[in-house]
## 1
Amino acid sequence: MQDLRTIILAAGKGTRMKSSIPKVLHEVCGKPIIQYVLDIVKSIGSLKTYIVLGHKSNLVQNYLPKDKIIIEQKKLLGTADAVKCTANYFRSYSGNVLILCGDTPLLNKNVIRSIVRRHKRSKAVCTFLTAVVHDPQGYGRIIRDESQKVVAIREEKDAVGFEKDIAEINVGVYCFKSQELFKAIKDVKPNNKKNEYYLTDIIELFFLKGCKIETVETDDPFEGLGVNSREDLALAEEVIRHKILRKIMSQGVTVVDPNTTYIDANVKIGKDTTIRPFTYIEKNVRIGEHCIIGPFARIRVDTKIGNNVDVGNFTEISRSKIGSNCFMKHFSYLGDTFVGSHVNIGAGMVTANFDGKQKHISRIADHAFIGSNSTLISPVRIGKKAVVGAGSVVTRGKVVPDGRVVVGVPAKIVEKKEEK
Ligand code: UD1
Ligand code: MG
């Protein structure tokens, strides 16, 4: 969109989180909150994105992609002040500006698009998103007159009497005519209980000047969820988790019990795979078709699993790659390991991949058979069709040649009969 720029407000302290890391870096389903907002901005094709940072800005900056324009808000004086900090970048710009809060991970790109569309069509000075919610506590309330025209947004702390009962809230997504925004923002005063410059006060200023204000109401009660506390964080996690599960099921994956299945954002699972209860699949995992995962499995970051693989109960796989047609059915741990295809990993097998200082990589080739209760002290290599006997310990640096059998502690090659 050539005439649209975006500002993301993310300077706040997030006091209610009681955290040593900035609020917007907290993860929801394995993805930082601000990344959800960045993904939305990307999908609507805004020309430029300005991100206002303040509290522990270096931590957020380190996370952000390098093409974003970062603006430092030196003193956290409120959301209107945060917008004011960007003014220099908008001097010669006469298009529209979309403003989002960095703490709203549940925004829907289609709704954001419809705000921008409505804004352009109606020629309003400001179009913003509202939601009618069950529990409006903590949000700005939308004050309307008898003809339903928006008069003001009243923040929770300043709401009095009937205003507290208003269920229509401000989500924190606004589209402004840039010139009008930066003119009016100078007139916002910190006349409220928190002595902050509220961006939301600009609505009343526009109303008093007779400017056109439009609203779009979302029918999703969770879309407006701003993560301000740990409780909000858990709620966002629950909502997004079920969204992810619904999407995965719609792609042909069986999730036996969505209530006990945890799948992070950015996980891909092939069709006809079944995820059994009490399974946790972390971000950037890829699982092929016709697999059975769980119950009680934990598949950790960056793991890749091929087709027709069974990963059974009490198993953990971390940063590993498993080829197709493998079995790993009971009580095993695979870390930093490349496994070929048609491999059997026996019950209780463990890779000891961490030596106290660093992690090491092991390789298990096609058709290998790793016996029950064996330990591979990484790095090791298990050859094609090789066998590790039950209870063996394959010590660090060991290479088991193709087709050979090792047993014992430490594991030794069993000589072939003809070699005796
Ligand atoms: C804000 C809105 C409220 C709305 C809610 C939706 C204001 C005054 N209120 O309240 O109407 O219902 O969002 O979630 O805008 N920030 C800065 N600089 C500051 C202060 C805040 O960049 O000086 C950023 C924060 O990092 C955050 C966003 O602005 O991402 C909103 O601030 P927050 O403190 O979360 O405001 P809310 O109380 O949630
Ligand atoms: Mg908030």
## 2
Amino acid sequence: MSGNAPLKRLYIKTYGCQMNVYDSERMADVLAPLGYGVTDSPEGADLVVLNTCHIREKATEKVYSELGQIKLLKQDKQAAGGAMTVAVAGCVAQAEGEEILRRQPAVDLVVGPQSYHQLPELIARAHRARGERLAADFAPDEKFDALTAERRPSGVSAFLTVQEGCDKFCTFCVVPYTRGGEWSRPAEAIEAEARSLAEKGVREVTLLGQNVNAYAGDDGLAGLVRRLAKIEGLDRIRYTTSHPRDMDEALIAAHAEVPELMPYLHLPVQSGSDRILKAMNRAHTAESYLRLIEKIRSSRPDIAISGDFIVGFPGERDADFEATLELVREVDYAGAFSFKYSRRPGTPAAALPGQVDEAVKDARLASLNALLEAQQRAFNERQAGRVLPVLFEKLGRHSGQIIGRSPYLQAVHATAPDRLIGQIVPVRIESAARNSLSGVLDLETA
Ligand code: 5AD
Ligand code: SF4
């Protein structure tokens, strides 16, 4: 981790056996990337962990009495404007569970011996419960932020934030720590904003959220889409980014039934290996993702699927990477973003063993990209000869040329008068490159 991160003080009290001593060291290791350094006194500590043992009689009572002392220290720290997080780990945590939180409200979290790798997540959740964010501890990662923030400056297509935050805690990702929990804007506010955009000439909105399909207002994202589809002048609706586990039946049905909802879906999978998906805490398997894609395609057969991939996640072996390539072959993507795993301080994966060599990551990224680029090109080439409705957005680089988007989000170049900017016009696609299509106005259907 970076040397200038603010050091937070971690006090771990270890009871009992050698096993617990070992576990306490592991906890310190997992917490080090979060900026915690071990201290030998609970006084003034930012995080206190009691790693308990109940082998001896009355051990549980002893823990409660210790917690009574910790509670006073916590109150002192709060009185001084600070905050202390109190965690109970080990066998007593296992045996007593939630009972500890009921008996001693100064305890923020209880973690059993099987879950130490989740400590960063549990601590972030405890901080959230107090209304704190960890943002200051993380350098913003422009590369990943840029993806969601990517804006197409244009008067006819606009982004509209409907949801923020993330409750998924993928082990590689800082978002749940930096952006906080999932939160949805009220549908009425979104509708009002969409109406005002439409009045200003916007024809297309892209609904934005880190977990946009977890949108919790108005009968979910499907309900919101149906509501916005009724707005006069708003002809195209898109949304990004989605998580596979929130891709519900209603949203899948909307793709078949709502003509304004564009046939494009960004649905990151990250890996095709179940072992790695589990270590990533993705809560889906390769198989369940493939079945989901199948379902979506039976609702909207022509839908363009895109995804995000991470290569070189800790512990990723050749066979895991092969499984990713295999999944990509099965899905046949229209486009994708792929990344080399980058170690983000404070995330559980940063502390995992088996970090992958940079050279191996480079090689895997290159072969994954080669496959994805070939699929993207093939997807584009399949449009040749078709007539697609194109929403023209801006002038092209060459004079006389204008640029718009197909329903599948492909850039389309055409030689056409600039008064067509802001209109949806049928274009006969003549040729395709990896990143764009070219065509001519289709006057027969126009
Ligand atoms: N390393 C590499 N890629 C990452 N992403 C998020 N965090 C990391 C990381 N630590 C990628 C994921 C996500 C996209 C927005 O950024 O693929 O879907
Ligand atoms: Fe949440 Fe997406 Fe990050 Fe996973 S990758 S934690 S779903 S923002």
## 3
Amino acid sequence: MPLDNYHIIESTLREGEQFSTATFTTAQKIEIAALLDDFGAEMLEMTSPCASPRSRSDIRAILEQGFNARILTHIRCDINDARIALDTGVHGIDVVIGTSPKLMQHSHGMTIRQIIDRAAEVLAYIREQSPDVILRFSTEDSFRSRESDLLRVYLAVADMGYVNRLGIADTVGVATPTQVYRLTDELVRLTGLDIEFHGHNDSGCAIANAYAALEAGATHIDTTILGIGERNGITPLGGLVARLYTLNPAYVTKYRLELVADLDRLIAGYCGLDIPFNNYITGSSAFIHKAGIHAKAVLADPQTYEVIDPSDFGLNREIAIGHHLTGWNAVRSRAEALGLQIDNDTLRDITRHIKTQADNVALSAAEIDTILRQAGEASL
Ligand code: HCA
Ligand code: CU
């Protein structure tokens, strides 16, 4: 499992631009790319230069920043698109063509033989023009393609010897982790090339599928900030980080984890979204402990109920106190944090009082503090 040597292809500036409310200005793209570069994303994928005039000039604008991250663009398997992409001076070109029966019928109308011939023409042209460009070939809708068609295409492309990487795309979010594992494993074994996985989240498996790909030997995973993309998007950057961190924090120490929250906030702001309450790492409730039993254990040792240390991400945990499930350990800990000397009997009385009150309406943190301060003064 190459988890010591995997790369993130951050596609907020390509797949992310396909999200319903995403339209970034040039300045915003530079800001997003700069933050992703600081974070440590190894590759940034940008919208095809053929999409619109500004898509083309923005690739140049990002290249001029001289980021550490390699800048890629994403094109159809088309010689004219390839010419325009090469013209931008981009570091890498991601070529994609549909292989599922639906895409062969409704998208380009080509047979598998014609797809292979087209790939040969386009990939040879790119390699001829630029021996150094990082070249990837991917099939769109891989998991609704016939397996025999897929293998014919991938093996033919691998044999051509032009590409650095093959991509697998779960375009409509239907794949299961087992299917992703099997296909990735097959391609790793048959081609020996680097393998990239791109997974949509229609059925909630985008993170699990990305991880299954890594387990099977994939070297590159596509993400976007907050998971934005077509429909409900793809593997979210923060979610992938959470998945890997909980297996072993060392898998993600190459990234500046404290920037995850800044990245999520930046994109939420530009897309007019709230960060979901249950988001990985940055959701408002991600580090709130509530029930008395949980609070007691977390106060003694946070790892009892926390697999992610919020401080590794520049965030804080919170113990919720003003509710009917509260416990006196949490109340006592708050009193201590306020520097108050209150005996245990009084703290137990206060806890009972909070529970009774909060059976009707939860108390705010400020209300709890007032109760505790009054008890503190009374005990002087
Ligand atoms: C799309 C294309 C794509 C391409 C993925 C890739 C997909 O917008 O439909 O090139 O790896 O999901 O198939 O994003
Ligand atoms: Cu996609």
